[in-house]
């Protein structure tokens, strides 16, 4: 494709031969991967935090090993290792039952791997938030005869959210950037689309600058969302300085 005579606006046009539409699609895919992975990480982290704070020693040791290993190994190695090892393990299991192998969908694989990684960090964020809850609140809930589930819904959850939100916001920003790593397993999101656009047009600076702007927009909008949530959950509290 000849691009020497094309202006920057033409290269960034939404319609081909411009790459603007592909970049926006890549940005939407990045947000979708990040949102799904963040949600999975939040679920894992919630159960992980409760498990680490429980009196069940075997569960606590397993969760400690999980969070230690995941946080020690670089995300890129984890993504590549879990993707290929997980796919191979699944196909070996299917073959053992006489079933044909399957090709794991790239989106599902990206979400599962990033969610598994997020879960380790989320476990520690939520564990710290739970530990920051004044013990008197929990003792008062027990004195009123609340069941564990009711205590969690009425006392623990509302009290941990203000403490956990800053860490959760940081993890969301982290997963939006870590989503770029799924390009190594062949799934096309914003980072891979940017590299393809640059390789096809040789206008690397233009497209990487455009991608940086899109990541910045995602970050700014995310900050607005988290600030809104934080204002809501901190209603009635004195503002932090």
TrEMBL record:
Pfam families: BPD_transp_1. Its main location: membrane. Gene3D superfamilies: MetI-like. The keyword ATP-binding does not apply. InterPro entries: AA_ABC_transptr_permease_3TM, ABC_transp_permease_HisMQ, MetI-like, MetI-like_sf. The chain crosses the membrane at residues 20-49, 61-86, 106-134, 204-226. It is a multi-pass membrane protein. Belongs to the binding-protein-dependent transport system permease family. HisMQ subfamily. This is Polar amino acid transport system permease protein. It comes from Peteryoungia aggregata LMG 23059.
């Amino acid at each position: 494709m000849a691009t020497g005579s094309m202006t920057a606006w033409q290269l960034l046009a939404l319609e081909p031969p411009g790459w603007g539409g592909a970049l926006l699609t890549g940005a939407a895919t990045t947000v979708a991967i990040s949102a799904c992975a963040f949600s999975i990480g939040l679920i894992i982290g919630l159960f992980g935090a409760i498990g680490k704070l429980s009196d069940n020693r075997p569960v606590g040791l397993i969760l400690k090993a999980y969070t230690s290993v995941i946080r020690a190994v670089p995300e890129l190695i984890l993504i590549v290792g879990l993707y290929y090892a997980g796919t191979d393990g699944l196909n070996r299991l299917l073959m053992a039952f006489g079933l044909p192998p399957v090709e794991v969908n790239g989106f599902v694989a990206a979400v599962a791997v990033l969610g598994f990684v997020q879960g380790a960090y989320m476990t520690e964020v939520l564990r710290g938030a739970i530990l920051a809850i004044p013990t008197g609140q929990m003792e008062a809930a027990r004195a009123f005869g609340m069941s564990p589930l009711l205590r969690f819904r009425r006392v623990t959850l509302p009290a941990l959210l203000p403490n956990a939100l800053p860490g959760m916001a940081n993890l969301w920003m982290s997963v939006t950037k870590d989503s770029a790593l799924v390009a190594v397993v062949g799934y096309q999101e914003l980072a891979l689309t940017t590299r393809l656009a640059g390789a096809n047009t040789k206008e690397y600076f233009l497209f990487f600058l455009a991608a940086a702007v899109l990541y910045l927009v995602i970050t700014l909008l995310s900050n607005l969302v988290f600030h809104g949530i934080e204002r809501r959950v901190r209603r009635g509290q004195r503002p932090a300085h």
